Amino acid sequence: MQYGSLNTDPQFYNPDERDAESYVCATIYNYYDWWGWDAPPVNCYWDYTDASTISYLLDLQSTGTYADWVANWWVGDFHPSGSPDPGPYGHMWFYGIPNGEDISDNSVYTQTTNGGTQSSYETFNFIWTCSNGGRYWTGPGEWNTVNGITHSNIPEASPTPTFTPVNTNTMYGFIDDESPYLEVGMPFAWTGRTDLRQDGYSNPDNTNYCYIGFEAPSLFMLNDLPESSPTKQAWQFATDFYYESLLYGYNARERLDATSQYCYDCDFDSTPLYSGYWFRAFGYWWFSRIRALGNGNMYPA
User: How many structural domains are present in the chain?
Assistant: First the structure.
C-alpha cells in the first residue's frame, strides 16, 4: 500500500514536493506490481488518502481474507492534533485530502486491530512523515523534556547546535489513562503493540512487525540527505530501499544497509540518519533520526 498527502495550506504547500512524493509512490507501486503478488499493490497517494478510504481499507485488511500481511509506505506531512493533550504533541495524525478528512492514531488502531480484539495484519510499515516514529513518553501522558526532540527553543537563525540531545523517553505509544482512554502513537496504531524493540535494526526482536519512521521532523523528498557525498536526495533513499528489497529479497536491516551504501558509502548505523542530525524546520532547529522499531529481519515483501 502507498499512501500520502500534504498540508494544502498555501503557507506550507509545495507543488514540487507533491510531484516528488507522487513519483516515489508510483515508483514503489510499480516495483511491487512488476514482481507480482497474489494481492496486488494499491497506490492511494493523494486522491485516496482520506479518513474514509483508509478506514475502509484497514477494515478490509483486518479480516485476513485478502492477505496475511500488509506492507505500507506513507509519505507526507505529520498533522498535529491541535491539542497538546496528551503531551508533548497530543495525538499523532496524518493529513488527509481534502484537509478535514485527516487520519488519527486512535482511528488507525481501531481498524487494524478490530477495536483491540485481534492482531494487526500491518506487518511492515515505512512512515516517512515528521514525528510519527519517535519515542516521546515515559508513561501515559508523561514525558521527559528533550530540547530538539520533544520541543525546540533554538531559532533556525542560530548557528547549527553543537550538542547531541539524549532522548530519555522510552515509549512510542500507549493507551491514555484518562477519558476517553484512546490509543496514542502511530507505531502502536499500525502494529497494535507497545513492546516492539526500540532499535530493531541493531537488535531485532522476534515479533512479526517492523515499523520505520522519523523521530522529530522528517526530510521532504526534495531535501538533500544530510552529509551525503556526492549529494543524494531523500527520494533516492526511499526508492532505492524498495527497489533492491524486492529485487534481491533483502530484509529491512539489509536494505537499510544497502541503501546507505548507495547514498553514503557506509552501513546504516554509520549514517546521520541512524545517529541523528540537526535539521531546520518550523522556525527552529530539531534533532532528527530514523528509528526502526521491532523486527529488522522482517521483509517489505
Answer: 1
